[in-house]
Design brief:
single chain; WH_DNA-bd_sf; LysR_subst-bd; LysR family transcriptional regulator; transcription regulation
């Protein structure tokens, strides 16, 4: 039975809620970037602290107990109340500034149609007292952070639409498969590059993407995983791996002859980027204004785009 609610209890509750949102322990592994054994320990410790079972695991899959479902719903309300208290407390000071917690994937600054910089400019002009805090995360972390009320808003390319979140399309981003100078495929002509040859080369995959989210449904020889564009670029530049990068992000290396896109017309794709907020959230003035600024900036910067076939 819980006595005083401590920070450790809140951390365990957040992990438990993330497991429920993911639909089970295995799916939550990549989202939380931790091991199955660690997740099991956290839930077991939480059950011992509470004095009752929260979930069942077995051949029938992951299932919440009645108490687990009630605790999950109560925890969601608790985290929402904590965020409302934090925002209210921050508005009480003599020099109160409303803080906006904004999330984004990395490596968007070089994309001309990415609207966040222009949107922040518009926000500063309209509400100079608002202080935005920007956090760079993986797509799965962004979704979880918005669900948990740790972020008010996030921008990324998401591979599905989770219940509990609103998704607003903002822009698209071109992606290509690259290898570096010194890689065996770099000097080959396009007509020498068969899909079998490309798929048999060592490939750096995005660790947060599920198997069914492979670009063009191709079976690459995934030798390593990475969790940011910077990490993927580093591994590609080692001349050891192939990997996908946003074309705007790779353009500098391509111009210097350090990277080459492989069969861009066949293997390229476009990621569809959305802004996400939590469903049921009552947006304050700052968040509502930022959403307006994002839509305005996206309209000002949008370029005509071909069909979208894949997430980031």
């Amino acid at each position: 039975m819980l006595g005083n609610l401590a920070d450790i209890d809140l951390r365990m509750l957040r992990v438990f809620c993330a497991i429920v949102d993911a639909g089970g322990f295995t799916a939550a592994q990549a989202r939380l970037n931790t091991s199955l054994s660690r997740l099991s320990v956290v839930v077991r410790d939480l059950e011992e602290r509470l004095g009752y079972s929260l979930c069942r695991r077995g051949s029938s899959g992951f299932q919440l107990t009645d108490q687990g479902l009630e605790l999950f719903e109560a925890a969601q309300g608790l985290f929402a109340d904590i965020e409302r208290f934090r925002q209210h407390a921050n508005r009480l000071g003599p020099n109160a500034r409303e803080h906006l917690q904004i999330g984004s994937v990395d490596s968007l600054a070089s994309l001309p149609c990415a609207p966040l910089p222009l949107a922040l400019k518009h926000l500063r002009q309209r509400l100079p007292q608002v202080r935005p805090n920007l956090h760079l995360m993986r797509p799965d972390e962004l979704e979880q952070s918005v669900l948990d009320d740790r972020l008010h808003l996030a921008i990324g390319a998401f591979h599905h639409e989770l219940s509990g979140l609103n998704y607003r399309h903002l822009f698209d981003e071109e992606q290509h498969l690259y290898c570096a100078a010194g890689h065996p495929l770099f000097a080959l002509r396009d007509e020498e590059l068969s899909l079998d040859r490309i798929c048999s080369a060592d490939y750096v995959g995005r660790g947060y993407m599920a198997e069914h989210q492979r670009p063009h449904d191709l079976h690459f020889n995934q030798a390593v995983s990475a969790y940011s564009m910077e990490a993927i670029a580093t591994l590609i530049l080692s001349t050891t791996y192939l990997g996908y990068l946003p074309s705007h992000y790779a353009a500098g290396w391509v111009a210097k002859g350090q990277l080459r896109a492989l069969l861009p017309l066949r293997l390229g794709y476009r990621s569809r980027f959305h802004c996400i907020t939590r469903q049921g959230q009552e947006p304050g003035t700052a968040l509502a204004t930022l959403l307006q600024c994002l839509e305005l900036a996206a309209q000002q910067l949008t370029e005509p785009a071909p069909a979208v076939v894949q997430g980031r």
